[in-house]
Design brief:
Number of strands: 8
CATH architecture of the largest domain: Up-down Bundle
Number of helices: 15
Shape: globular
Number of domains: 2
Strand content: 5-15%
Radius of gyration: 20 Å
Amino acid sequence: MNNFEFYNPTKLIFGKGQIQKLEEHLPQKAKILLIYGGGSIKKNGVYYAVKENLSKHSFVEFSGIEPNPQYDTLMKAVSVIKSEKIDFVLAIGGGSVIDGTKFIVAAANFEGDAWDILEKRAPIKSAIPFGTILTLPATGSEMNSFAVISKGNEKLAFGHPLVYPKFSILDPEITFSLSNRQLGNGLVDAFVHTIEQYLTNNINTPIQDRFAEGILLTLIAESDKVMKQENDYDSRANLMLSATMALNGLIGIGVNQDWATHMIGHELTALYGIDHARSLAVILPSLLRIQKDTKKDKLLQFASRVWNFSSTDSDTMIESAIQMTEAFFENLGVPTKLRFYKISKQDFPKIISAVRKHIPVNLGENQDIDEAKLLQILEAAY
């Protein structure tokens, strides 16, 4: 096990009707900026429940955060923070709104070009405090300090301890209004987040492995009820907590992490507008096939413990585990091939070039995914 330091200051407020506790978690006399995306929070009633609990506070609103939050939109919110002298931000939405809010609160006090936070890893010295109300379980952004921001066809990530949410309210009933596409994406996103921290080198981390396997098994077990049983509170609660636990830092302590699937997937989203989770579903199975030798021990463990598959032949076990993963994604309505998105093989050099531009070193837990392997992964995903 590797050395590690684990820190997560976000207070998780979980369960039915917990929005009613919002007032007690807000700083007194703070002027609040309410940030959200489109109109879905008005359709599902969350917006009005929040407003009722802001009766003792002065607040202004900023809407229109995109599914892949755009830098120009976020900078408009920064201007509102400065002109309105905002003390606290409340983000209502899924990962995109929360990611966007993390950038907004960091950029509000940043001196210079705020894009440098992403492009040049410029240091963040302070940030406006914020809390979240999660509406779409997927990214885990509600309990971590990382965000991904877009600017045109560039999609960059940043992270800093100052952008942990102060609190996050998770009410599984909010998910009742989500579409099957959103739910399927959420299940895939949480699944792949877990895989990126689990299917790497075997360095004797049994506790982290069991945590990760518990999340994977829960997502698989609950997926059918999530997708087919409307308003099933228990399955939605299990999905919501699984997605949060997949990326709040716990399962990643002391382990080697991969994230190559995400780095490639980000470029598919930036270049072709593919949903984030769907880009991951395309890349992961092919990446596992190309990297099966370096991931052999964990892939065999994955096949046995997660998919309950056994064979005396290791290659058969590994391929079966990958096929079962593909089938899981496909059963959620999430395609696993690039050709579904009308991407041709002639596009591969452009994708590889974009990956290299943003990540100039080799990818993977062993930093062994070079341009040649990137091409192999894309060809296998076709």
